Amino acid sequence: MVLSDVLLAPLGLAALLLSVPIVVLYLIRPDPQELTLPTFQFLVAGERQQSATPFLERISRSLLLLLQVLVVLVLAVGLATPYVTVSERATVEETVIVVDTSASMQTDADGQTRFQRAVAAAREEVTGTTSIVTTTNGGDVVLQRGTPTAAQGTIDGLTPTDAPGELSGAISQAASLAGENARIVVLSDFAGEEWTTAVTTARGRGLSVDLQQFDGGGDANVGFIDRRFSSSAVTLSVKNYGDSTVTRTVQLGNTQRELQLGPDDVGSVTLPVPAGGSEARLSPGDSFATDNSVHVAAPADTAVDVLVLTNDRNQYLTTALSVVDRVNVTVRQPPTTIQGDYDVILYSNVDPNSLLPGNVESGRELVEDGGGVAVLAQDNLPQRYRDLLLIEPGETKGGATVGQTAQTQLTRGIDFQPPDEYVSGSLRSGSAQVQLGDGTPLIATEDRDGGRIMYYGYIEDRSSFKFNYQYPVFWKRAVYYLADREPLPALNHETGETVRFGNTTVEGPAGRVSGNSVWLQRAGLYRSESRQVSASLLDESESNTNVEALDQRAGTAGNLTRTEQRSVPQPLTEYFALGGLVLALVEVGYLRRRGDL
């Protein structure tokens, strides 16, 4: 055995040379001079005859030298840093705990979810300094270098989400927090293998990464993996992750369909969407309840009633609107009175002499009531429109070019062609969605008094846009915007997304939240005063809860598990320093007893 097997710094033994001058000084020290005092001679002689022997006298004379040499020896060995080999976990003072809070951790196994077991294990990993990271938002730091009490409280407050998690990002975040000698503990079901790169990188920095897996209960999962809307219906896709054929019933509102799925099969059903908020459910359920339901949000009144006021019927416009599902079109020719309730009024090619004041006032009242009005460009725009017309009209011009186009829900993906002729002008109010080269708004909108106003700058009989296949698409978006009816895909989201509600209070599955944007971390319906949206887990990989044990994997994940067994030296310097101090105190006590102090 060499010295390096028991000492981290063998050079420290050079301090033993300090014992040489001590011994030399002891040897050259003159003997003490004895004086005879007749008064005490008989008493001392009698005592020596009873207790003194030559051997004990030599020991007594050499004890001080022995103590001094022992102090030097102990301190020299301490400087050489003796150590014993222990598990690295026993020496860690700082720990970074990564807790998987993704949806799949809610899989139930024997009465406990994976997440509950992971939280119990996390409590056991708390050390003197503890940081905690979750898989939410790619690595959310919920505690940084906290005390054991703070760490325990933070762990107790953790809850799983209904959204997919990013384990790789969380491990990378943990590695960035970890100090030089910190240990990272990852508590997860370890679905997939994307996280392996982050573990390899952390270990490449010399960090200890401990992987603790929590699986079970997910070997026969059947769940929703996709949702697609078409007009007023929704198509739901269901996948069987088990290894046997199953039968499931899908129910949405008062409609239900039955599916028979073989192993790894995917089946789909199409169901009508009920008005308001509803929930599609799979029955019977299984151990992973999160993907057994899909929430669906729809307007309370799904139909849009549109009134077209025109003196030429504008067949291109009315035909485009009539093919839009759940849009009811009524055409009236001024002069006429407006009776009935409408969500949208469109003014198209109206004879200025036939337009009644009451026709325009009906538009203003509709905007105040939360509806929408659109004015379409024409020669000689009626002056009676006044504030309903968003531009200050000028002369009719030709040779336009399309300039800037804002990327909004109304215009995104549509190729707006230059008009042959257009009404030039400047914007009175609102904002230009599409602008011509000379600054004239081609499409402009304004939200006013709870309602909406639009200006459409194409003169219908002098524009080729009406022949474009995107023309009906634009008008579908336009009437839905004016009626404040968002299309179904815009109302239904996947968990993990962020939705803007404006600065208001939103009632969600986990309670009330306030702010401009709301993160949809739980599945369910989110409602504000003016809007309702849904969130559901629709992630094929997250629903695959049948994960293989790490120690049985043949790829990178298995190698990472098998190779992470490390031992480290535990220095014993402090114990030798304490021993040297004790010996020094014994020496002082001995000198005091001898009377030298």
Automatic annotation (TrEMBL):
VWFA domain boundaries: 95-190
Membrane-spanning segments: 6-28, 63-84
Domain DUF7407: 222-295
Keyword Phosphoprotein: no
Coiled coil: none
DUF7408 domain boundaries: 305-478
Residue span(s) of domain Aerotolerance regulator N-terminal: 7-82
Domain DUF7406: 485-535
Entries under InterPro entries matching the protein: Aerotolerance_reg_N, Class_I_gatase-like, Double_TM_dom, DUF7406, DUF7407, DUF7408, VWF_A, vWFA_dom_sf
Keywords per UniProt: Membrane, Transmembrane, Transmembrane helix
Any single Pfam family the record assigns to this protein: DUF7407
Gene3D superfamilies the record matches: 3.40.50.880
NCBIfam families xrefs: two_anch
Name of the protein in its database record: Aerotolerance regulator N-terminal domain-containing protein
Organism name: Haloarcula japonica (strain ATCC 49778 / DSM 6131 / JCM 7785 / NBRC 101032 / NCIMB 13157 / TR-1)
